[in-house]
Amino acid sequence: MNHLKTLRPAAFALLGVLGLTISSAQAQLTVNMIQNPVNAGLAVDAALTPYFDGTKIPTQSQLDQFLAIESALLNGTENNALAFLNQVTPGLYTELPTILFNSANIQNTQIQQRLWAVRAGMANDPRVSDGQGDGNSASLQGKKVVAPVVEPEQKWVTFVDGNGIWSQAQSINNLPGYNTYGGGVQIGASREITKDLSFGPYIGYQGTRVSYNTINGGNSAATINSLRYGLFSEFRKGGWYTDGIIGGAYNSANVTHGYNLPGYSAQANGTTAGGEFDTMLGTGYEFKAGKLTFGPMSSLQYTYLQLGSVSEKNAGILNQNINSQNAASVLGTLGGQAHYDINLTQSVILQPYGSFAWQHEFMQNNYNVGSQILGQNYNFQTMNPGRDQFIAGIGGNLVFSKSISAYAVANLINGDQKIFSQAISGGINWKF
Prior knowledge:
four-stranded antiparallel sheet
C-alpha cells in the first residue's frame, strides 16, 4: 500500500511535464495540439485521484504499469512526455475517415477511366467508323448489288480490373504521419439500354495496410478491409458524355494502438467497422482533331461514412473506449484529358492517355470524438483536412479488336496537407 504514494507524483509528472512543454512551445503549437493532449492528461489525472485518496485500490498489474509509466516519464525528455500524451489520444482512429475518403476517390476515378477506355475503343469499332452494320448500306460490284454482312449487335461490356494504392501523409498538428499501401479488384458488367445509354453493376474488394510513423505514432498500425459495390452508367451524345455512380461499401479496421517511450511500451488492440455511401456525377466533352481526342471533364462526388465505437483491449490502464464517428465529403473535380490513336497493325490500336485535374473538398470538417480512459471522459477534436489537391494520370488503352481491349493508368495525387498518393489501375474490357 505504501506504493500508492508514488501514484500522485506519477500523475503530476504527466501534467507537470506537459505544462512545461506547452509553456515553452506555445508560440509554435496550435489550439488542437495543446487541447487534445491536455484533455488526455487531465483525464488520466482525474482517473488516478480515487487511488490517491484510498477510494480504490489498484491491482498489482495496475500498480506495476503506473510505476513503469512514471519511471519512463521522469527519466525522459519533455518531447517524450508530450509524444506519450499524443499517443494516448485517439488521433490515429480519427485519421481513418480521411484514408477511406482517399480510397473512394481513387476508385471512382478508376471507374471513370475505365469508361473512357470503353468510349475510346468504341470510336474505333469498324461498325461505328465505316457506317456498316445498320442493315441499310450496300456495295455495287459490276451489275450485281451485294449486301454487306451485318454482325451481331454487341450490347454487353464485362470487365475485371485491379489496382495498387500507396499514400504518404506527414504529421500535421501532432497527429501521427502515416504510410498506406493496398490493393483491390473489381468486376462488373454494363448493358446498352438504348443506343447512347449503358448501365450496370460492379462489386469489388479493397485491402489497405496503414503504418503510423513519427514519435507520436507509437509504432501503431491498422489493417482496413473494404467490400465495395454499386451501379454505374454512362450517357453519350455526340462528343458529350455523362457518367454516374451510386454505391457503397462496408469497411472494417483492426487497429494496433501503440505506446512507445524510452523504457516503456504497450499495445492496445481495437476494432471498428461501418457502412459507406458513395455517389458521383461527372460530365465532359471530347473534341476530335485527326487521331487526337481531347476535352474538358468535371465531376462532383459525395461520400458519407460511419465507423462504430471502439473498446480497446490488451493495454491495461491505457485501454480506451472511443465513440463512433460520422463524416462526409463532397469533392469537386475540374480538369481535362486526351488520348491519341496509334495503329500498331490493321486491327490493333494503341491509345496513349493523359489527364490533369484540380480537386477541392467542400464538406469534410473537424469534429469532436468522445473518448474514455480509466473511466474518465474527454473530447478529442479532429483537424480540418486539406482542401485542394491535384491529380495527374498517365497511361493508355490497347484495342485488340472490337470485342477486347485492355487499359492501364497511373494516377498521382498531391494534396495541400502534405498528403501524396499514387495509384496504378488496369483491366480488361470484353464486349459481346
